[in-house]
């Protein structure tokens, strides 16, 4: 079995809304045309929390103040095995969201209760369910 591709996924929540991403129709992108939860790769030697800090800054111009590990989700997509270390992000600088790398996709806010039906991947829907459970039961902290 091929080695899993490690990555991070960050469920960014603000005022009852969650940030989603639509990947572009770009050749070679495993998530081409998919609506997903934002995330990214883990650089060699980098920890998952550091990857979240870096990816939020590089892609969205957000400065993370605090996050919570939800767990790891293992899934297959486009014939590749992935392991996504998943974080709930509710505490970040509240400046304007800037899509620093628009060629990688567009981002928008949706009410968290509507996110599940918009997401393309079952793995993303499971991650939203995890995040909603933490938020509903007040365990974000």
Protein traits:
141 residues, alpha+beta, Nucleoside Triphosphate Pyrophosphohydrolase, 7-stranded mixed β-sheet, 3 helices
Radius of gyration: 14 Å
| Overall CATH architecture | Alpha-Beta Complex
Structural class: alpha+beta
Runs with pLDDT <50, length 5+? none
CATH T-level topology = Nucleoside Triphosphate Pyrophosphohydrolase
Q: Please give the largest β-sheet.
A: 7 strands, mixed
What is the number of beta strands?
7
| End-to-end C-alpha gap | 37 Å
CATH classification, class level: Alpha Beta
Q: Based on the structure, what is the oligomeric state of the protein chains?
A: single chain
- Report the total helices: 3
Strand content: 35-45%
Mean pLDDT: 85
CATH homologous superfamily classification: Nucleoside Triphosphate Pyrophosphohydrolase
What number of domains?
1
Based on Cα principal axes, name the global outline. Answer: globular
Helical fraction equals 10-25%
Mind sketching the topology for me?
Blueprint: E1 5-14, E2 17-22, E3 35-36, E4 39-41, H1 48-60, E5 64-77, E6 80-92, E7 106-111, H2 112-118, H3 122-136
Parallel strand pairs: 1-6
Antiparallel strand pairs: 1-2, 1-4, 2-3, 2-7, 5-6
Helix pairs in contact: 2-3
Characterization of the model:
The protein is built from three helices and seven strands, in the order E-E-E-E-H-E-E-E-H-H. It is of the alpha+beta class and 141 residues long. Helices cover 25% and strands 38% of the residues. Strands 1, 2, 3, 4, 5, 6 and 7 form a seven-stranded mixed beta sheet that branches. It has one domain: Nucleoside Triphosphate Pyrophosphohydrolase, CATH 3.90.79.
């Amino acid at each position: 079995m091929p080695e899993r591709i490690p990555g991070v996924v960050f469920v960014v929540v603000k005022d009852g809304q969650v940030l989603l991403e639509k990947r572009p129709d770009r050749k070679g992108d495993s998530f081409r045309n998919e609506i997903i939860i934002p995330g990214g790769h883990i650089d060699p030697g980098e920890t998952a929390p550091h990857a979240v800090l870096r990816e939020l800054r590089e892609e969205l111009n957000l400065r993370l103040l605090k996050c919570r590990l939800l767990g790891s989700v293992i899934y297959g997509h486009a014939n590749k095995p992935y392991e996504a270390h998943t974080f709930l992000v509710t505490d970040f600088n509240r400046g304007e969201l800037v899509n620093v790398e628009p060629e990688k996709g567009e981002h928008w806010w949706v009410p968290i209760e509507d996110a599940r039906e918009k997401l393309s991947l079952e793995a993303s829907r499971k991650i939203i369910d995890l995040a909603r459970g933490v938020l509903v039961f007040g365990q974000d902290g």
